[in-house]
Structures are given as structure tokens and as C-alpha cells.
Amino acid sequence: MLQLEHMHRIAAACYPETQAEGSKFWHDAKPVKFGNSVAFAPTVTLADYQIPGDSSYLLILRVECYTTTFVAGAPGFGLFSPPPSGTAHWVFTDAVPITDDYRITPDEPLHILVDSDEMLFAKGGQKLSLVAALDPAPDATPRVIRTLVYAYLVGAIIADRLGPSETTYFSE
Amino acid sequence: MADGITLWGLTKMPAGEYVIQTGNYIGSVWQASPELTPYGQGIADNYPTQIPWYLSFNVTEAGTDTLEARRNRTIVTRPLLYDVLILGAHALVPLPANSIVPNPQAFIYLNISHNETGIPWATPNRIGHFPVPAIAGIDTGGPTSASIAVAANSVVRWPEAFFLPAHSRLKLEFFVFGRADLPGFVVPLRLIFTLLGVKLVNLSAPAPQFVTMPNGAIVPVGSRLPWYSTVPIGVFKSNLRSDFQIDPGKQTIQYFPPQFCDVEIHGIYSNFINGVLPQAEKLSLKLVDVDSETAWEPSQSPTPAVFGGEHQANPVMPLTLPHILKGRHRMQLMIQNNSPDPVVGGSVTLVGVRQCEY
Prior knowledge:
The complex is a heterodimer.
Chain A: H1 2-13, H2 19-27, E1 29-34, E2 37-39, E3 43-50, E4 57-68, E5 86-92, E6 108-109, H3 110-113, E7 116-123, E8 127-134, E9 144-154, H4 156-162
Helix pairs in contact in A: 1-2
Chain B: E1 10-12, E2 18-20, H1 38-44, E3 49-61, E4 72-76, E5 83-92, E6 108-114, E7 130-131, E8 137-139, E9 156-164, E10 170-176, E11 189-201, E12 210-212, E13 218-220, E14 225-232, E15 235-236, E16 244-246, E17 251-255, E18 263-270, H2 272-276, E19 283-289, E20 301-302, H3 303-306, E21 317-325, E22 331-337, E23 343-344, E24 347-354
Parallel strand pairs in B: 5-8
Antiparallel strand pairs in B: 1-2, 3-11, 4-10, 5-9, 5-11, 6-7, 6-10, 12-13, 14-24, 15-16, 16-23, 17-22, 18-21, 18-24, 19-20, 19-22
């Protein structure tokens, strides 16, 4: 449902003049889901995706994230818990692994980048990662951090019409 | 041979006659004056006598106060007997041996206005001035222990020639950055500023009122004003207009003030490419023309790919194409600091031509 709603809004936000043009925008957006399940560590990759080389752009619209544990009897067993505290940033990791020069967002408190809506464009052909620096785990129980990204491969015309309104980030 | 082609030191004039190039004629028929813009050339064509012209003046301020309010200097040029077409400027900025600021010239700001119109060349915002290297070539006179010599650009050519009518004056208001929270951040204001141009003499006719542009438009003389729009990079830390910074790992958006008229943006200068931050390549940017649905950058670019600095031959890095910023439109600049250091006092200046009086 969320994907259909996203698709619909992408096409509508391009302000097509005709139904045929709107249909083109609809077909030029391809939903992609990705995300990792990781354990607590100082630095983790919450999600990564190799954007196809011949795709124009990836448009990220929503990032969901939660923490849980499947250790029977452990505190919080099977319960949804909020994302851990720490900082994170989106970064291109294909050229050099996790080099700060290739960040496409600033390094922000985790809640700004996960479990939140997003409107971020990434160029085709890049490997895109959401890298987080986490605070220490709350206890010794093995816990997992699950991240799910709703994104859309879009063509250049869609990107051109939506691009100037891309998200920016601010925190102090 | 086409009209105006130079052959054996002779120039063919519009009436068909050939004249010897004496060097006192800069006109469109000469077709060997690429240094003049069509607007400037159209003005110069009205003057039979044209002489290279330089006007220098000292700008000094002995104080070492960090509070910028006490660190202003206003220079008013003396009225001149003849009309002048000002083409560019040069600034000799001797470096103090003990300066802790590597590039003091990047922290000296300036605004210019013509006393007949009072129109400031800098767009009004919290800074309201632009760095001197955006308008003048910098020569630091030699290296010191704290600084390297800068002489890559002795003269910066302005985006448009400025016609200074006889008996009128230019007002130059200098102001130097200071920071209340960092007393050592003292930039000396000590420079020799030189305006360069062509003195225009025509004893038999008044100054031209209109100029025909290459597209056939007839525009008033004085209608193409140099335009400098400077925004700070980062967040203001106090109520001082010079006290701002962008911290490591942070991103900011800045909006350039809109104009009521179209503006041609020719290039961009930034004072942190060579000065404030040694890792300017770790600052990335996106530029957007907010009111245009297509004018944006799809990927972040390193700042040295887009902005110029005073160590470069072109301190105002030309855009790949002059961008026409429509009236009431705004330019938006996103900057992200991926370096481990803060950028303190960094600013970005769009340089172009205002068309308000068209």
C-alpha cells in the first residue's frame, strides 16, 4: 500500500499535463526495498544497495528501523523497540569503503535518518549505504537492528521535476 | 577581407578608410579588443580618445580590535574630469608576519556604490558586503611564515564594465571580519586598492545615453551594474555578522537574496577554497535555482569544482554558461562539510550583472 501511494504521489508531484504523461511517470518509477539486520557494533551498515548502472536515480522516500531480540526470556524478547541511539549518514561506498568525502547527507542523530520520511536522490551506478555509528549496546543480550528502506528507481525527467525540493538536514 | 580585420597594422574603419592603429582607439570596429564587453565597447565607441587609466588609494586601519563594528573604512574617490570605463581592480594586501589567519585578504569585505544612483553592488542581507578577492586581483607582496604568496591573478576583470561619468564618485565601504569569541582572529585591514580602466575623452559630444547590445536591444548607459551576492556558510554563532561557521559533518542551506530584475550570474567566488579550510574538496555543494523546475545539480560536487579562490587565475570561477536568474527568483546553495574541521567565516559570492534599469 505504501509503495502504491508513493508511486502515485511521485507521478502526481511531477504535475503531468496529460494522463498519458502521468502514465509515463508511473511506469518510470520502480519500487525497490532493501535493508540489513545487524547486531550492535560501533559502526554498522544499516542498509546498502547497488543502484543499477543504467538507472538514472534512486529516490529514497521512507526508512523504517527497529530493534528487537529473539533470545527467549531476554528483556524485550520479540518486542519492537526504537532504533538505537547514535549517528548515521548516507554515503556512496563503491569507490572507497566509507570515505567521508562521498557522504551525501551530513552525519546526523539516528532519529533524523531512520524511522522517518525521506526525499533523497542518489545517482545511478553507485553503491549506496546507510552507515551508523552506534552508542554501546544496552546490555549483553544479543539484539538485532532491522532497517527497511522504501526507494524508487526513477528516470531523469522525474528526478528533474522533483529534484530541487530534495531534503536537507539540520541539527545542532 | 571583412570589415575591421587588421592587416599590416592598419584597421579598416566603417566608412571604408584605413587608419593606423595608434592605440588610442578601442572600438567595435577594431575587433581586436576582446577585453571589452559589448556594453563597454558600445560606450567606448563614442569616444575618439581613450587612455589607460589607473586609480589607487590606500585603505588602512591600524586597530586590532576584533569587533567588526569598529573596523570599517569608507573611501570616496575624487571626482574626475573625464568619463571613465572601469574594467577591473587590483588589491595589494601585504601579509603581516604574525597573522594567524592564512589568507587575510579573504576576510576583508567591500561594498561599492555610485553616488549618482546609490545602488549598492552587494545584495542586501546580513553581510551586505563581498570579499575583496571577488572583485580585485590579489597580490600579497611575498610569503611570510604564516602565509604563502598570492599573485596568481594580478587583476580581476569585472563581469561588466562600469561607466563612471565625469564629476561623479564611487564610494567603497570596507569592513573586516572579527569574532568576539576568538580574540586572536584579527585580520589587518591594510591594502592598496587600484581601479583599472579606460579614460574616455570626447570634447565635442556629451556622454552617450544608450548603447545597442549585440541582440539589438538598446539599453541605457548605467543599466548593467556589477552584482555581487554573498551568503555566509553555516550558522551564526553570535549577533556579529561575521561570526558564523559550519561544523564538521553538518549540512546547511543558504538562500541568496532575490532581485526585482533579471540577473546574469557569471561566476562564483568562495573565500574558503584557499583560505579558511585546507580541505575544501571535502565540502560538497548543490546549487538550485529555486523557481525553476529543472535548474538544480543532481549530485553533490566538491566546492573547488564550482567555486574559485584567490589563489587561482580565475578567482571568480566562471560558470559553464552565464545563468539568467529571473527577477524575484532565488538561488539556493546546499553545502555539506565532510571534513573533520569546522569552516569558520566561510562565504560564497555569486558574481554577475544586474539588469534592473533595462
